[in-house]
Amino acid sequence: MVDSSASRRQAIYKEQHDIEKLREKIAHLEIQLEENDKYVVKLKQKLDDAVQEEQGHNIDQLEHVENQQKQLAPPVSSGSPSPKAVDSNREQILPPKENQGGGNKVQVVQNFLAGKEGASSAMAFANIVSSGKLVCPTKDVNYHADGDIQMLHAYETIPFDNPDGGVWKQGWDVKYDKEKIKQEKKLEVVVIPHSHDDPGWLKTFEGYFEDQTKHILDGMVEHLNRTPDMKFIYAEMSFFELWWSQINDEIRNKARKLIESGQVEIVTGGWVMTDEANSHYFSTVMEMIEGHEFLLNQIGFKPSNHWSIDPFGISPTLAYIMKQSNMSHAAIQRVHYSVKKYLAQQRNLEFTWRQLWAGKSDVTDMKTHMFPFYSYDVPHTCGPEPAICCQFDFKRLTSIGCPWGKAPEVITPGNVAQRGQMLADQYRKKAQLYKNNVILVPLGDDFRYDSLTEWNDQYKNYKMLFDYMNSNKDLNINARFGTLHDYFTLLEKRISEDKPLSILSGDFFTYADRDDHYWSGYFTSRPFYKHMDRTVQHYLRTADILFSLANWKANNSGVKFTGEDLYDNLVTARRAMSLFQHHDGVTGTARDHVVIDYGEKMVTAINNCKQIISKATEYLMKFPPTREQGLKIDEEHFVDKLPQKVVSEDGSVVVVFNPLGQPRQEVVCINVNSWKSRVGLPGESNTEILQQIGPVLQVIDNKIVADKDRFELCFLAEIQALGFARFNIFEADDVANKVKLRSSSEFESQYFETKLVDKSTDIIIENSHLKASFDVNTGLLKTLKEESELDVELSFVHYGARKHNRSFTGGDSLAGAYLFLPDGKARPLSSSDNSYIFVNGPIRKTIFVKGPQEAQLVHVVNLDVNAQSLYITNLVNITTQANFEVAMRLKTSIKEDNFFSDLNAFQMIRRKRFAKLPLQAQYYPMPGSAFIEDSNKRLSLLGRQALGVASLEPGWIEVMLDRRLNQDDDRGLAQGVLDNKRTESQFFLLLETLSGQPPDNDPTIGYHSLPAHHLSLALHYPLSILVGQIDHAASSEIPASTSLLAQAYPCDIHPIAIRTLSQPTIYGPGGTRSTKPQSSSGMVLHRLGVECRSKKELLTKCETSDGKISIKSQFVEKPKTVHDSSLTLMYVSDKETDSLLLNPMELKTVKISF
Ligand SMILES: [Zn+2]
After folding, report:
1. What does the pLDDT look like over 432-447, one tens digit per residue?
2. What's the pLDDT score for residue 1029?
3. What's the average model confidence in pLDDT over 458-483?
4. 866-878 pLDDT tens trace
5. Which of 327, 433, 624, 743 stands the most exposed, by the fewest C-beta atoms within 10 Å?
6. Where are the beta strands (DSSP E) in 167-252?
């Protein structure tokens, strides 16, 4: 029973409370009004400054613009800062005036609604976006490296003929003069015991640890403590850390002593031995920091040598990352057998590896040792003859045996002379391939040394062999166990005494291990997870940045950041992404259940990051801490299906975060539950946001349909560098911003005007930057026009798998996870049954195509009102196919044959087509992008995940989207690739006009223009969209927009990461871990290398600084100290620094404490 007087009292109380609330609100509004006035004054000041700056811009830049203009004939007015540009800037900064003529944002919507859709075409946007400016850093970039061997040029010379070389199948009969060797300097032989441990392949990471790795590392401590002259090297810190978490302090101390004494060497010290084809340089730097931080915190060891023996093709980006991490030497293995032979013939298997952009400079030089033979196992490392070397793998005494028919023998006083001679002969032959009579002989294989028997057998037998060889003067050999460090120390001594190494530039893709077995399949295999990899990358980078800055603010303000308690989750996320960089992870070459395990770890990582992003956003935006429902990222992620947008309800608040170092203006789309939804700015602002509402389109049962329960609300947002902006979603009766639909076949929509498309002319969409035409029958792209028109015919093609080639003596393989072995040229997928819907909105135009059914293809092309490029999304599902590989092909009218693809999304390397190489050899990794160009046009395809790319004819680019292979390809995986899922790929397609002469007529490296760089960054690091509910009264406390930066980064400097450093982890019972953050972060910067021939204007509002950046004045929260550091923070300078100077392409880290 409710007492009526009590309920009356309650009602009165509630009324009073409401009145109080309203009073509060009025007070807030008054404050806000005052603030708004101040803001307008500030903006006006900013505008005046901008005008002044535009007029009297710094002389360097003006000169540069003038130079650019001189190169242009006829001069192009939009290339210079003009009053028009300033006016347009004014429109962006100031709220639009009422009833202004055409040109402001409200007007665009009104024009659109009134049917005034632009004069040139029904599909044109009104020209509302300001023009940008031609900016280019003044420092020149190099287009080649000085040196002795250039790999692209070497490809012209190498015959790729694969003759039978005898016992060394892929080489020749190696000989030496037995008398002459007695006069030579002693042959130094360094036998390096190693265990190659894959953090996931046939078993999961944890599976391998339980079954093998923990026994290997236990045995290492036990055996090496007993035998001080035995050595061991180890690379994978993921395993080492897991082991470390489970052992006691006594074992830890023993392990530390072995490392301190040099008996055990940690090589590279990354979290994994990263893949080099598909990995993005962000992830490589992060997995290196992850491993190095563990080493520094727990062991105090700093690796100086790099070891990359299993990745399937070798990238110079890795050599650079190691160099910047203060490493001096590298050992690499999986390189095309013909390249190895070519280098061996000139004794150039050891070389000084120079980066392609280095020119004459030696600052990037890395001394590199390349393995000469087929593999890193014992049969292929002691010398050229596997049948003999196999007999010196003493694990094979008790298990596996030798496939060449001759088993190993236990070394005894009776046979040591004969066996020692045999082995010395192999060593001596191997030395003939190198310059300095020092050889590296690895002694190990996958998951070796997992039993004490193996440790004992290898040790005892080799000891006897070494003693024999070293005491036999005629052999003139000094052999011993050693580490990689021991080897390179000896080599350096000999180099200084005898023969310096040749300088080499270029890369080692595409790898073939035998015959025409090119490993270009794994550039694309399991694209669903390659896509997920970049999603993790994006969320992790954002979470790390926001965690650092929130923690930073908490330190300065004393107001606790509750997200700090989530640091362990952040560490877990970093490690999940790092683990996947393994060369059977992101490569797509693990067993099905291992792939799922990686996927689960990555989804956990994404969810951990989202939690941190939400917490940090609330903290930094000053959201009241007591609200019931926090902010949530508007996207859900799954292990086995593509991400889904969360539906936002009316009344929601939307917070958008820009994780880039420069401001951006972008179309943001969210899913809403009402076709009446609109987006507005917080408060009572009457500033109109340019927006549109349209259907969410899908293909169901081979038909395009509109989702009945959700709609897509898109709006143009402008967000500051590392900045937030807040918006409100509300329902309005005025639904003036609806899109119009034109369909190729019958299509019904309850909410949007729908008509059949006029099939008499092609579809044209355009804005002030770009015009694109699409085939009216298929909906596929036909031409692009920027300054002039280019044919860009987009189509989809497929390959099958070829049958066994019986002529191969080694036995042929079929296409699988690693190998791309097509059954001839690609066949087109017919587009005659395509249907499409053209969505015409005021800020985004979309062509949504239901493509070929074989691939259940959905192809979506967007052109946004302010975009300089087309945004392409493909969804493919090839689960109904057998031995089927599907590619997107662009055939253009670009005549000249200049094709560049990227390495690790870090640099663009020149590729050439060689008639002597098969089709599968023309495929290269495309972890980031590719472009083709002639003297005045460049077409760039910028991707956001690793896929394979080729240019099979002049003017063509094709990119593989998915592959399904029904069989194993004999590289150990023992299964096909049949776990395909509906998979998404995204690209920007950018056409640029080039001006002026190419600075180098035979470049070996290319550079993106600044607009292309910024597009690539936008694709990789999209705006984070957070949605939640908010108490209206509280909302006035929350800023409408804010930035964590006092000033944006220069246009050509990208903050790769701002990553909080960890205190040493506390390991508890049962392998539990607790890690606390330090009050310092590593900030990793990259100065982009920029092509200045592009006439494309940069729309981003940023400045160039010639590589100079001041760290302390960069942030709103001022750091206490800034210290210069090596890339992975292993070496931090004692001296404080503030400003940095970066050269083009340079990667640099500073340690920031607060
Ligand atoms: Zn491996």
Report:
1. 999 999 999 999 999 9
2. 85
3. 98
4. 999 999 999 999 9
5. 624
6. 187-196, 232-234
SS (H, E, C) 602-659: HHHHHHHHHHHHHHHHHHHCCCCCCCCCCCEECEECCCCCCCEECEECCCCEEEEEEC
pLDDT of residue 19: 55
Q: How far is the CA of 584 from the centre of ligand 1 (A)?
A: 7
Contact 878, 798 (CB under 8 A): no
**C-alpha–C-alpha distance, residues 46 and 842, integer Å:** 29
How far apart are the C-alpha atoms of 105 and 97, rounded to whole Å? Answer: 10
CA distance 463 to 27: 87
Distance of CA 639 to the CA centre of its chain: 20
CA of 288 to the centre of ligand 1 (A): 17
Q: Which residues are catalytic?
A: 310
Q: What is the pLDDT of residues 1075-1126, one digit of tens each?
A: 999 999 999 999 999 999 999 999 988 988 899 999 999 999 999 999 999 9
pTM summary value? 0.90
φ, ψ at 551 (rounded to 5°): -65, -40
Cα 143 to chain centroid distance, Å, stands at 23
Lay out the sheet containing 664-672: strands in order across. Answer: 647-648, 664-672, 703-719, 691-700
Per 3-state DSSP, what percentage of the chain is helix, strand, and coil (rounded to 5)?
Answer: 30, 25, 40
What is the distance in A from the centroid of ligand 1 to the CA of 173? Answer: 29
Residue 530, C-beta contacts closer than 8 angstroms, at least 6 positions apart: 278, 524, 586, 588, 945, 946, 947
Residues 1009, 527 contacting (CB under 8 angstroms): no
Mean pLDDT over 693-698 rounds to 97
* pLDDT tens per residue across span 264-296: 999 999 999 999 999 999 999 999 999 999 999
Which of 637, 634, 636, 631 minimizes the C-alpha distance to 614?
631
| Half-sphere exposure (Cβ direction) of 87: Cα atoms closer than 13 Å | 6
Query: Nearest-CA neighbor of 1075 among 599, 573, 545?
Result: 573
The Å distance, Cα 372 to ligand 1 centre, comes to 18
pLDDT of residue 30: 53
Summarised one tens digit per residue, pLDDT across range 886-897 is 999 999 999 999
d(Cα 1130, Cα 886) in Å, to the nearest integer? 44
CA quadruple 7, 13, 15, 18: dihedral sign: negative
The C-alpha atoms of residue 521 and residue 526 are separated, in whole angstroms, by 10
Please state the φ and ψ torsions of residue 491, each to the nearest 5 degrees. -60, -45
Residue 451 three-state SS: coil
User: 3-class DSSP state for residue 771?
Assistant: strand
CB 376 within 8 A of CB 389: no
Residue given tokens 């920091």 in the structure block: 289
* Three-state secondary structure of 453-497: HHHHHHHHHHHHHHHHHHHCHHHCEEEEECCHHHHHHHHHHHHHH
Higher pLDDT, residue 343 or 59:
343
Rg (alpha carbons) of the chain, rounded to whole number: 31
Ligand 1 centre to CA of 116 (Å) is 61
Sign (positive or negative) of CA dihedral 105, 110, 112, 118 = negative
| Average model confidence (pLDDT) across the chain | 89
CA–centroid distance, residue 277 to ligand 1 (Å): 14
How many whole angstroms from 198 Cα to the centroid of ligand 1?
A: 5
HSE-up (13 A, CA, CB side) for residue 821: 25
Distance from residue 803's CA to the centre of ligand 1 (Å)? 28
pLDDT digits (tens, 9 = 90+) for 481-500: 999 999 999 999 999 887 88
Ranges of beta strands (E only) in 681-780 are 691-700, 703-719, 723-731, 740-743, 754-756, 763-766, 771-774
In the structure, ligand 1 is a single-atom ion and the residues with CB under 5 Å from it are: 198, 310
> What residue has token string 């399937």?
312
Side chain identity at residue 654, one-letter code? V
C-alpha 311 to ligand 1 mean position (Å): 7
